[in-house]
Design goal:
single chain; about 240 residues; four-stranded antiparallel sheet; three-stranded parallel sheet; about 20% strand
Length: about 240
């Protein structure tokens, strides 16, 4: 416990918890504070001025990170016939139809992203209560219900990150690993936060982007100047 306390104190060294940093400075601080033996995930958290319970204030989308996520994403595809073969060739980890539905209904979910061809949605719809709460339900708005399974699988494997505002209007996602270069992390953070800003819904009133912070898995959060994020879309 004492060792953990010492590690946290060392990680906080040089970080002003009340200061708002530029994306570049925040990335450097977070990367420097990631001192554990494993390759920590770098995460972004955004507090938005929306109430996702209202349909016109829901924020969701998908963004391709320019430098990937650094993690091995397991992809499941609901498809039949030629489309199933196409999904396998594209690198999907799990491909199936009725058989895959039965597996998921039993609670065996061994994938991180879920894709379905349009004709499979009546079948996949039965899994709403299982996949929905986990954020895995295929959706055409984020490109996971599509006849082009090759592109969808390659995108998921290559660094596509889905985002969706939770009840309190918070969005968070992993945008890389501590082993990434500072430049790669900055590019990923800018791509992710820029995509969220661009996804501002029509029903959002007042300040849309309230707080932004990044952290490593075991490290402290570092606050980012919201104006630096907003400038992503205007530069």
């Amino acid at each position: 416990m004492a060792r953990q306390g010492k590690r946290i104190r060392q990680a906080l060294d040089g970080i002003d918890r009340n200061k708002l940093y530029s994306i570049e400075d925040a990335v450097k601080l977070v990367k420097d504070s990631a001192k554990t033996k494993f390759d920590e995930t770098i995460e972004v958290a955004m507090n938005l001025g929306v109430d996702p319970r209202h349909a016109d204030q829901m924020v969701r989308g998908v963004v391709d990170l320019p430098n990937g996520t650094g993690r091995d994403v397991r992809v499941a595809v609901f498809a039949k016939g030629d489309k199933a073969d196409e999904a396998k060739k594209a690198g999907a980890d799990i491909v199936g139809a009725e058989d895959l539905v039965e597996i998921v209904q039993k609670g065996k979910i061994e994938f991180d992203r879920c894709i379905a061809t349009p004709d499979m949605m009546p079948l996949v719809g039965r899994l709403g209560k299982v996949l929905g709460p986990r954020g895995l339900m295929p959706n055409p708005k984020v490109g996971t219900v599509t006849p082009d399974v090759t592109a969808a699988v390659q995108s998921a494997k290559g660094g596509a990150v889905e985002f969706r505002a939770e009840k309190a209007g918070i969005i968070h996602a992993g945008v890389g690993k501590a082993s990434f270069t500072e430049q790669a992390l900055v590019e990923n953070v800018r791509a992710f936060t820029g995509a969220v800003v661009k996804a501002k819904p029509a029903g959002a009133k007042g300040t849309f982007l309230k707080k932004v912070a990044i952290s490593s898995t075991m490290g402290p959060g570092v606050k980012i100047e919201p104006g630096d994020v907003s400038s992503v879309t205007t530069s």
